[in-house]
């Protein structure tokens, strides 16, 4: 080991191996008897796409780093990049085996319930006619089969695309190898008539017709997929004086599909010499080739949900849930006025994102609003957020959008939105070289009667209406003037490329967030050393930053009680004697993706509570622009603490991290699922509000009816006492 390496490795573990453990927890949802069967298949699909991204990004990055002349050692394990790759590759066969077993079990269950993924051989004669007609009319005309020989060289195999490989012989027994890359325009599956949901994957249809496509005898065939390094250094060749960054990004993204392969997957049987040929052409080692009995790509699973008849939907999917409108907000009243009245907290996906959208819409039309400023990392493909920002600009408001064009795999979407927002009159800037802007902040500035006021929003998740229904996140909307002043300072600093700004309340990376977190931990250490109760609670997605890990270990040794709920990567190991024995760590994987970042320091009457866009990762704390916002409103502070406490109490969807890096279920007889609890609470609170409104409306109606009855009695009595002339006069006036 490098003589300059001086890290204590006794209570830390490797980031990549920790991530693989997280993905196993995702796959384990397919074994949970309480998860409906089609939802289980969705978890297998998520596991598969997660692994794709892991190879493209993390394995790709490790490959690049391993080529350096001097490899830097991992500060949690002391391993080189090459050694980390070796450990990853060793774990892959077992992961594929577990995926295949889960897929087989779930498919059997789905068939029993009436959802069948069929092979061509299983089709009836009539069904084969239907499928063959579909093949002849819609598939064959757009295929580009290729026979490899001296005149047809080995082609470029696109990243993460299904490719069919076939070994063949002609009438003279001469051998050939053929390739067919699946056109991206093709639907992934074809639905068959009948009871329930019956379908066949398009790749299976093509495999069944290979002899017709090539006009040769098929010896064997398989579906393969090549995964390429997608970890582009997007600013490597950028000349700040030469071209627009957005234009440069468009050019740079085209390189991604041509980067070097890092993995080959094979579904089916191929001759050994064919596999060796592919390995040679793709410059891969044997440990980078993996065999799968389950589909290599499973995005098709999500389309099945829209095809279910009601009886199947009830038995194979989660009970439908629609985010409720927050009970402490009135959709028929001004959102701005309600926020001025008091701070509001939205909790997605249990509560709806609609109040924030309404806030933007109202601000775009409010005559007193002079500007809207926002940071955007990921937007939905169809976005009301963007629509209202554009509308505000068209209404003459100053709209500043800090758009991060380098949000991985959303680059194209963000480039398109930046162009459309510019066309609407928004000022769009792209952040900093070497620092991604990952913060979630929106500032609305108003000028009324000579007074400037602010509405600020700080969130833990993106301004994406789609993921707001899939990810758990917090969104604070506040009229606090001091937070608004800090938000104004933040945007001013971003506009003039000042990363090292000074803030009175917000903690902002890359300069002030990490030091302040260390200071907050030190405060708890001081309390513990003075004999007082000291407590830290952390809710986040990942923990990798070595300095923070060491500071938490120091706090544990001082007697600070530390409770952490970490969804994914966690490089600190709890329960190590003399190092982390006061640290307890759990992880929740459930129906929704856990996403909030919450830091709580202290207990009693006034703990310090922050919500943040930043995980405790080196990249977030030192190489990104992130924000942690303090919660000052006592009611909201109490609510955030309650949320974290319930997450830490979850014993149904939670696993406990053990000192050896493994995870075990919290309880054999679980009773609390935090996500189920939050859904039930939101629905019950909403229903209670509706019932209260009905009672109030009924009371008003009864009171009104009493007034009408009394009025009629008075009128009737008065008419009875009128003279004949007065009665005729009244009748005339009515006419």
Can you give me a brief rundown of this structure?
This protein has 735 residues and is an alpha/beta fold. The chain has four domains: 15-316, Polyphosphate kinase middle domain (polyphosphate kinase like); 335-504, Endonuclease Chain A (Endonuclease, Chain A, 2-Layer Sandwich), CATH 3.30.870; 508-672, Endonuclease Chain A (Endonuclease, Chain A), CATH 3.30.870; 684-734.
Please characterize this protein's 3D structure:
The protein has 735 residues and is of the alpha/beta class. The chain folds into four domains: 15-316, polyphosphate kinase like, CATH 3.30.1840; 335-504, Endonuclease Chain A (Endonuclease, Chain A, 2-Layer Sandwich); 508-672, Endonuclease, Chain A (2-Layer Sandwich); 684-734. The protein is built from 21 helices and 27 strands. Helix 1 (15-28) runs parallel beside helix 3. The radius of gyration is 31 Å and the shape is globular.
- List the domain count as a whole number: 4
The number of strands is 27
State the fourth-level CATH superfamily of the largest domain: Polyphosphate kinase middle domain
Q: Taking Cα atoms only, what radius of gyration do you get, to the nearest Å?
A: 31 Å
Give the low-confidence spans: 234-243, 721-735
Strand content is 15-25%
The secondary-structure class comes to alpha/beta
CATH architecture of the largest domain: 2-Layer Sandwich
Largest sheet: 10 strands, mixed
**How many helix segments?**
21
Helix content: 40-55%
N-C termini distance = 105 Å
CATH class of the largest domain: Alpha Beta
**Annotated CATH topology of the largest domain:** polyphosphate kinase like
């Amino acid at each position: 080991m490098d003589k300059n390496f001086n890290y204590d490795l006794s209570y830390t573990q490797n980031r990549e191996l920790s991530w693989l453990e997280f993905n196993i927890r995702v796959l384990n949802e397919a074994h949970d008897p309480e998860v409906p069967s089609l939802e289980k298949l969705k978890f297998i699909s998520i596991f598969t796409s997660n692994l794709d991204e892991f190879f493209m990004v993390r394995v790709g990055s490790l490959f690049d780093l391993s080529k350096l002349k001097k490899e830097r050692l991992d500060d949690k394990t002391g391993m080189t990049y090459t050694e980390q790759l070796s450990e990853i590759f060793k774990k892959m066969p077992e992961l594929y085996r577990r995926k295949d077993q889960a897929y087989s079990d779930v498919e059997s269950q789905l068939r029993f319930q009436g959802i069948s993924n069929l092979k061509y051989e299983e089709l009836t004669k009539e069904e084969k006619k239907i499928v063959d007609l579909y093949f002849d009319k819609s598939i064959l005309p757009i295929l580009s089969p290729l026979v490899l020989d001296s005149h047809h060289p080995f082609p470029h195999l696109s990243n993460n695309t299904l490719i069919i490989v076939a070994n063949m012989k002609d009438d003279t027994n001469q051998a050939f190898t053929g390739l067919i890359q699946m056109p991206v325009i093709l639907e992934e599956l074809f639905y068959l008539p009948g009871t329930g949901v019956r379908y066949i994957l398009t790749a299976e249809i093509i495999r069944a017709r290979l002899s017709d496509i090539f006009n040769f005898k098929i010896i064997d065939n398989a579906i393969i997929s090549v995964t390429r390094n997608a970890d582009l250094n997007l600013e490597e060749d950028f000349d700040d004086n030469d071209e627009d960054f957005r234009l440069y990004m468009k050019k740079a993204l085209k390189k991604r599909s041509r980067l070097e392969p890092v993995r080959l997957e094979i579904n089916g049987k191929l001759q050994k010499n064919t596999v060796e040929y592919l390995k040679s052409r793709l410059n891969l080692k044997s440990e980078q080739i993996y065999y799968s009995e389950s589909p290599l790509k499973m995005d098709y699973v999500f389309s099945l949900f829209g095809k279910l008849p009601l009886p199947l939907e009830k038995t194979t999917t989660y009970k439908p849930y629609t985010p409720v409108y927050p009970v402490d907000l009135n959709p028929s009243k001004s959102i701005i006025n309600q926020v001025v009245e008091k701070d509001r907290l939205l909790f997605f996906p249990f509560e709806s994102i609609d109040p924030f959208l309404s806030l933007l819409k109202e601000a775009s039309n409010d005559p007193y609003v002079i500007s809207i400023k926002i940071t955007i990392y990921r937007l939905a493909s169809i976005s009301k957020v963007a629509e209202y920002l554009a509308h505000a600009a068209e209404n003459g408001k100053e709209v500043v959008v800090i758009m991060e064009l380098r949000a991985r795999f959303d680059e194209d979407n963000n480039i398109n939105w930046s162009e459309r927002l510019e066309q609407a009159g928004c000022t769009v800037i792209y952040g900093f070289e070497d620092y991604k802007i990952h913060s979630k902040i929106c500032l609305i500035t108003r000028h009324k009667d000579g007074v400037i006021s602010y509405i600020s929003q700080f969130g833990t998740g993106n301004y994406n209406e789609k993921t707001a229904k899939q990810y758990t996140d917090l969104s604070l909307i506040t009229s606090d003037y001091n937070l608004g002043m800090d938000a104004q300072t933040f945007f001013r600093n971003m506009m003039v490329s000042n990363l090292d700004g000074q803030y009175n309340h917000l903690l902002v990376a890359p300069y002030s967030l990490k030091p302040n977190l260390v200071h907050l931990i030190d405060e708890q250490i001081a309390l513990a050393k003075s004999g007082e109760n000291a407590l830290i609670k952390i809710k986040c997605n990942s923990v990798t930053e070595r300095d923070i890990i060491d500071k938490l270990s120091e706090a544990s040794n001082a007697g600070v009680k530390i409770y952490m709920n970490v969804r994914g990567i966690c490089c600190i190991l709890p329960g190590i004697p003399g190092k982390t024995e006061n640290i307890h760590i759990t992880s929740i994987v459930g129906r929704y993706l856990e996403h909030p970042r919450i830091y709580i320091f202290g207990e009693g009457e006034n703990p310090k509570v922050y919500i943040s866009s930043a995980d405790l990762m080196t990249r977030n704390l030192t190489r990104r622009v992130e924000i942690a916002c303090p919660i000052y409103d006592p009611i909201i502070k109490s609510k955030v603490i309650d949320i974290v406490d319930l997450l830490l109490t979850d014993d149904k969807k939670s696993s406990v991290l053990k000192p050896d890096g493994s995870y075990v279920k919290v309880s054999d007889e679980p009773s609390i699922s935090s996500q189920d609890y939050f859904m039930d609470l939101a629905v019950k609170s909403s229903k209670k509000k509706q019932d209260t409104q009905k009672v109030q409306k009924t009371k008003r109606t009864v009171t009104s009816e009493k007034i009408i009855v009394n009025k009629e009695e008075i009128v009737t009595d008065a008419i009875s006492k009128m003279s004949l002339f007065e009665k005729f006069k009244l009748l005339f006036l009515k006419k």
